[in-house]
């Protein structure tokens, strides 16, 4: 990935008022976070991808008490198009209502910049509702699946 591509990605992020963005392929990883305090530098980081990293944010901190009675949600890690399998034609979805999911299980894919990115569950339980249809555009941090 060259510097010009990185600049274009940052411009798109700023134009669309995205606060967090993460891109990862076999060679590179870009993690942009504009939510940090003003005293810290909000400069994006580009690193060689050497190992799988997991998010350390907790979904329970941002949930209200009414949401916690309805179950936990798997949220979109990026902006893009959500798919229930790695192909655009829905023939065999990865998950369906009633399926059991564990932390780290792939529950779908988000296509962003012509790359299919895995969406993994950060909660455990039984799929209660799939909130987003196959092929639908999603926003960052949008609820995709509800798990009880």
UniProtKB/TrEMBL annotation:
Q: Which InterPro entries match?
A: Biotin_BS, Biotin_Carboxyl_Carrier/Decarb, Biotin_lipoyl, Single_hybrid_motif
Alphabetically sorted, this entry's keywords are: Biotin
Determine if rRNA processing is one of this entry's keywords.
Answer: no
Q: Which residue stretches does the UniProt record annotate as biased composition, category Low complexity?
A: 40-71
Judging by the UniProt lineage, the source's domain of life is Bacteria
| Domain Lipoyl-binding intervals | 71-148
Q: Where is this region: Disordered?
A: 35-78
PANTHER family to which the protein is assigned, alphabetical: OXALOACETATE DECARBOXYLASE ALPHA CHAIN
Name-wise, this protein is: Biotin/lipoyl-containing protein
Query: Which species does the entry assign this protein to?
Result: Staphylococcus hsinchuensis
């Amino acid at each position: 990935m060259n510097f010009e591509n990185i600049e274009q990605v940052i411009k798109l992020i700023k134009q669309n008022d995205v606060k967090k963005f993460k891109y990862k392929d076999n060679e590179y990883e870009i993690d942009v976070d504009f939510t940090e305090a003003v005293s810290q530098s909000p400069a994006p980081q580009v690193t060689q991808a050497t190992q799988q990293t997991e998010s350390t944010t907790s979904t329970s901190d941002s949930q209200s008490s009414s949401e916690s009675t309805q179950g936990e949600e798997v949220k979109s890690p990026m902006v893009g198009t959500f798919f229930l399998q790695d192909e655009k034609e829905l023939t065999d979805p990865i998950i369906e209502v009633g399926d059991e999911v564990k932390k780290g299980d792939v529950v779908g894919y988000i296509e962003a910049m012509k790359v299919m990115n895995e969406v993994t569950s950060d909660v455990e339980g039984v799929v209660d509702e799939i909130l987003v249809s196959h092929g639908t555009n999603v926003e960052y941090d949008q609820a995709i699946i509800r798990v009880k």
